[in-house]
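Why run this: before we spend reagent on co-expression, it is cheaper to look at a predicted model of the complex and decide which construct boundaries make sense. The entries below are exactly what would go into the expression plan.
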Amino acid sequence: MSDQKYAKDYTLPELMITACAREIRDGERVLIGVGLPLLGAMLAKRTHAPNSKMAYETGSFDSSPSRTPFSVVDPDLVPRAIFAGQLTDIMALFLQRGFIDVGFVGGAQVDKYGNLNSTCFGDYFKPDVRFPGSGGAHDFGVFARRSLIVMVHEKRRFVEKCDYVTTPGYLKGGNSRYEEGLPEGTGPAAVISTRGVFRFSPETKEMYLETHHPGVTVDSIKENVNWDLKVSPIVRETELPTEEQLRITRELDPEGFFLRRGEYNKKIKAQAESMGWL
Amino acid sequence: MAEKSKVMTMKEAISKFVKDGMTLYISAVWANHAAAAAHEIIRQGKKDLTLIESSPGEIFDQMIGAGCAKRLIISWSANEAFGTGYRFRRAVEKCLIEVEDYSNFGLTTKLMAGAMGLPFMPILSQKGSSIDEVSAFLGENKLKHIQCPFTGQKVTLISGINPDVSIIHCQRADLEGNIQTWGSIFSAKWGTLAGKTIIASVEDIVDTDTIRRNPELTLTPGFRVAAVVHEPWGAHPGHLFGYHDDDRWFRYMYANFVADDDGKFKKFLDEWVYGVDDRAGYINNYIKKYGYKRLMRLKPKPFYSDPINYGTYPFDTMHMDI
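The model came back. Tokens follow.
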């Protein structure tokens, strides 16, 4: 990809989608949820990883969608798929058996060992904010060889300790994940946030900053993390989308549902008003 | 010919089988989305229900908002990519309902155990997290960790469940309740089969010979099914493979301009649930408001699979005539 020209005019979601795509290697089996990672996986398949296969917890595997699925339950994931089964097929036969290479997960809070919370802020029994919950994320995080965490980066979300651990990362660091009985050779591989890309130390399993997004300083990232964040000695800028990657990403979302949500919402709102929804 | 028809209206099925305080599985993950049943439950004012489904959306949210639910056993609840499940969120934040959280796999194996008549199902997730450390109303009966008696590895036992009633929306059934479905069905197989009583709403009622020509599509033979409800468009605004697409437009509007506002939510229920008698009334309201053309856009163009050869097999297997 290095011989290609980098795009100049891109947005943050587009940069993050490209970062997601670059985590996927050709031939890998990838489990995805809703949102940006889905576009990242589709982008990878259309560029450097044409032999990657996507699995959806609904039960579809290696589908041939004619539109960008807005969710894992899109009916378009079934026609011309290689396999159409059910949740337990994907979770038990593929994921639990160790046949899934990459799983994307999101969350509302992450700690320095990559433990994730997508359930609640505050006390579980009387939450300040209740979020949707695990969905398949817990299972992806347990079994996928590499789980990839995609996060909005705010200080209150990068915490010393999660209010609730929905999806286990490296627990207390070191070998603690495997001592707890989670499968060897699995765990978070990276955090892709709205400010940078983070990885985990092979020994301590502590998160460190690998790249910062263009225009974001390392200091500002450290300020927005609630622990003393370690920084790679060769920290650099996140690789930009190439012109080809950007073109394909935009082709995947012509309506702007994922990429230009503000504009999309405005357009729909005008229609909603004229049709009596407001 | 059918022994005895199980076909009835949704009104009859819900009033006959669903009682206050029951535990219900309702297929609510947009595929096999049993929306018509959920709306009838709201219309009949059922109360104190324990609702179970892996990743439910709007219809659970609406049942919560309408005051039908007391407890939830779920792994995820929202209006999917379209927005937050506001009724769910508020009710949990105000402690109006209790929630027991599993993951999608954990929850589906809970139903699978029930469907198979097992007291529990072993799985290898629900470890190292608050899901396995914290339990709500199920207490000690949520799950347990054991050391595998064969390998010594740490295994999670998920307690099984048999909902009093399970409800699914399917493509078709015959009068006896032999129900058929196809596509990717998320947790719906185990959720349906776990039920003590099964209600199936269907887009088409077909003769038994149609069922027999595609036996692999049968989710369960009719002896498990108590009621069949003929309910075209029964999944709207969710989808049913081959019959109707997700109504993204309607779901987007609902999630963004209705769900968050108490007054608008009430108005929505008044119009789309209390203000109509049944699903036909709901669809008529849709056509009246938004036009037949918009509804018909949700019909996918046909894409048939190739016929497969099941073969017919001769009586004389020794081939003595050769």
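Chain A touches chain B through 64 residues (CB under 8 Å). Chain A has a mean pLDDT of 95. Bring this page to Monday's planning discussion.
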